[in-house]
Amino acid sequence: MLKYPCLVLDHDDTMVQSESNINYPFFCEILQRFRPGASITLAEYTHDCFQKGFGQMCRTRFGFTDEEMEEEFQLWLAYVRTHIPPAFPGVSQIVHRQRALGGTICVVSHSSAENITRDYQTHFGLLPDEIYGWELSEALRKPSTYPLKDIMQKYGFAPEQLLVVDDMKPGYDMASKAGVPIAFSGWGRKDFPEICRQMEECCNFTFYNPDALERFLFDER
User: Fold this and answer.
1) Can you tell me the distance from the alpha carbon of 194 to that of 148, in angstroms, rounded to the nearest whole number?
2) Which residue stretches of 53-208 are H helix?
3) Predicted pLDDT at 32
4) Mean pLDDT, the chain, integer
């Protein structure tokens, strides 16, 4: 029997190495387009996305309008179609074992369903059962509890049958408000000790490599 019949997986920097390879370099290009002369370091970008989420970071730090947010999204979609982030070593085994044992795999992310689907097909050779991505209205995206409540309603799961796996605070906020346990996927955040400290303190579980999460999920010693 699975410890968690449903895994609710973040995508960027939990399953794929996208922040430093894709999202941050692209955002620097967008800043020069929308706010010439403005800049942000990788550490600042990571911190703001951690505390606020990407959309709120754009609005509060740089004053992006709704129109600019939509333009940024469309340009980002075009960019990621030709830039595929590598998967973290070890995460493929987790999704394959969950699926092989009859478990459900859902993705709740600030990425788009298009590139989540592409990454899963490219790296894992399977597709998630559900994807809740950036296409949702802002009110329904993580940290909203909508994705978790919708999963529970569709599949008949109780909160304790889900495990959120995420590397950022919006994932924790979503899980905690829904009463769902959360594991911190710390393998992509080892260079950010303050983020690690905060997530260790608030999450139910912490793992600094995918192998440790795999052993936990499938009762290996």
Assistant:
1) 27
2) 54-62, 66-80, 91-100, 113-123, 146-155, 169-178, 193-202
3) 94
4) 94
CB within 8 Å of 128: residues ≥ 6 apart: 9, 105, 106, 107, 116, 120
Query: Residue type at 135?
Result: E
* Long-range contact set of residues 99-103: C-beta below 8 Å, sequence gap at least 24: 99/126, 101/2, 101/218, 102/2, 102/5, 103/2, 103/4, 103/5, 103/6, 103/7
From 17, 204, 14, select the one nearest 109 (Cα to Cα).
14
Please say if the pLDDT value at position 7 is more than 90: yes
Q: What angle do CA 178, 184, 188 make, to 5 degrees?
A: 135
- Find where tokens 């992006």 sit: 64
- Going by C-alpha positions, the residue among 145, 105, 140, 79 that lies closest to residue 11 is 105
Structure tokens at 122: 């490219």
Distances in Å between the Cα of 204 and the Cα atoms of 39, 189, 200 are 35, 17, 8
* Structure tokens belonging to residue 37: 């002369």
